[in-house]
């Protein structure tokens, strides 16, 4: 069978990594690239740099990876869908919930595969965490905490830290726990003098009464990417910078010292760091999308899921503006 003909629009910081992976995976040929701003990282190779999505479509591509600024996603995605081209669109799916839902509905109506580039889902630590939670290794789930902090990325100009970074944590929290966000409360701040927020602290409730909290900012001089899930049997800690997953078990040794026992809840048990394979998450994302286009079993972030993430992001921003909890639709 002939290789799939793939295109890429957007040759910036993320686009260069997409180009590398499109060239690396089996069964795919990167046949066309486009960016009206040119090719600053020299990723086109022998390919002519086109200036528009229409020119990509004219090259007979079967699917396109969209790594353009968020504000352009709806327009580019709509043109791809109308041309019958499958698409993997970088997160967030669109700048507003209405635009994201429009894309999801359009791709579904056309019978096309549409996915969103929430790369953290493919982090080996989170893949393993979801399997273990699904297996019941933690028992009843109590709480999810995420911390995603680091320096400001100059490449981001058209959204704030909620839609750029907190969107990762919204998606991974719903995905690893297989729950839906129901209530959101958040406070945002802007300390760098930009139009958009650069810090958010959110407290949320997911289905089944699960609590979550998320601390995200562009104001920390070192990167931190931590997901903590606490439950009946202990606590999992996933570090997605190193792709390490560690389990802290509740102890089963009885505390006989009465003065300590009266204020201690659970006790410390065994600590296990799992040895897991660590493929590059972006490579896994591309392989899964390729398989979806080919009609194989695949684990992609659907556009419906991507639209829900944008909805939760906007609830965080609305909560910060009003000082109230925001209830999400089912």
TrEMBL record:
Domain GFO/IDH/MocA-like oxidoreductase: 127-236
Domain Gfo/Idh/MocA-like oxidoreductase N-terminal: 5-118
Top-level taxon of the source organism: Bacteria
Gene Ontology MF term list: nucleotide binding
InterPro entries in the record: Gfo/Idh/MocA-like_OxRdtase_N, Gfo/Idh/MocA_Oxidoreductases, GFO_IDH_MocA-like_dom, NAD(P)-bd_dom_sf
Protein name: Gfo/Idh/MocA family oxidoreductase
Gene source species: Tessaracoccus rhinocerotis
Lineage, opening ranks: Bacteria, Bacillati, Actinomycetota, Actinomycetes, Propionibacteriales
